[in-house]
Design goal:
269 residues, 11 helices, 10 strands, alpha+beta, two-stranded antiparallel sheet, Glutaredoxin, 6-stranded mixed β-sheet
């Protein structure tokens, strides 16, 4: 029997983490810990890449809270064009960037978003995920997560570039990924080896960014509770319910925490 690749071994850990009854951050950390155990060398490469991105403030010039979120027109996993402007006519939108279906952290994040999607919908909002992969592989991520929301294909990373989220992986990370069984070029349909910072934005109906989470360390994502608190606050404000809140770590905006009573009042409105 052929020896399993690093990617295949990590797949097992991802599935174990997916089944954990724990916050998303805990599940993501479980995968990161397994990466450290399986290959300290690969973990070191990741650490150096993240340090480079942080030193250059990559992603931090993306749309700020209170600024207009640029419009997009992108195809979903079926090839249907989806426009942000049209989505906002229905209510607030959670825009979540993913690196691809091959990324274990993105899979866990998409799975988590799918779990909270019904509550997000009850708050009058919706979720869209954006990935630089072609729609075929977006469909794979959607199927994996059983996502009720679209996975949009930002092929060649045009929208990520407009938002200042795009970065080059670098030769060291590319070589490490290829050696470990992660060759992303076929998934993206190009050889650029560029990816978006996996950021999350909560966009209000007027198109303004109400909260954002941007972290160059792709092993961390916006907490699901923070997303729910964000859309709950927007819904509460829309129906005239006062809500107090306090920002959570790495999440910018005034909506990262909301008291349980506000959730109940907002959901019943």
């Amino acid at each position: 029997m052929a020896e399993k690749t690093f990617a295949e071994l990590l797949e097992e850990s991802t599935e174990n983490s997916r089944m954990m009854d724990a916050p998303l951050s805990v599940r993501l950390k479980a995968v990161a810990d397994e990466v450290n155990r399986l290959s300290p060398e690969f973990a070191g490469v990741v650490g150096r890449m993240v340090a480079r991105l942080e030193a250059n403030s990559v992603g931090q010039s993306a749309p700020q809270v209170g600024e207009q979120m640029p419009d997009f027109i992108l195809p979903d996993e079926k090839g249907t064009l989806v426009r942000l402007e049209n989505l906002l006519e229905q209510g607030p939108v959670v825009v979540s960037f993913h690196r691809g279906h091959w990324c274990p952290y993105c899979r866990l994040n998409a799975d988590g978003l799918a779990r909270i999607a019904p509550d997000v919908k009850r708050f009058g909002a919706q979720i869209v995920a954006i990935s630089p992969e072609t729609h075929h592989y977006g469909a794979e991520l959607k199927s994996y997560a059983k996502a009720p929301f679209p996975i949009l294909a930002d092929v060649d990373n045009g929208y990520a570039l407009e938002l200042n989220l795009l970065f080059w992986l670098g030769d060291e990370k590319r070589e490490a990924m290829q050696a470990g069984g992660f060759d992303i070029a076929p998934y993206q349909g190009n050889e650029t080896w560029m990816l978006p910072i996996p950021a999350t934005f909560i966009v209000g109906r007027a198109g303004l960014v109400k909260a954002r989470y941007i972290d160059p360390d792709y092993r961390r994502r916006m907490e699901l509770d923070a997303i729910l608190a964000g859309v709950a606050r927007l819904h509460a404000e829309a129906v005239g319910i006062p809500v107090q809140s306090a920002p959570a770590s790495k999440t910018e905006g005034e909506m990262s925490k909301a008291p349980p009573a506000a959730y109940r009042r907002a959901l019943s409105s």
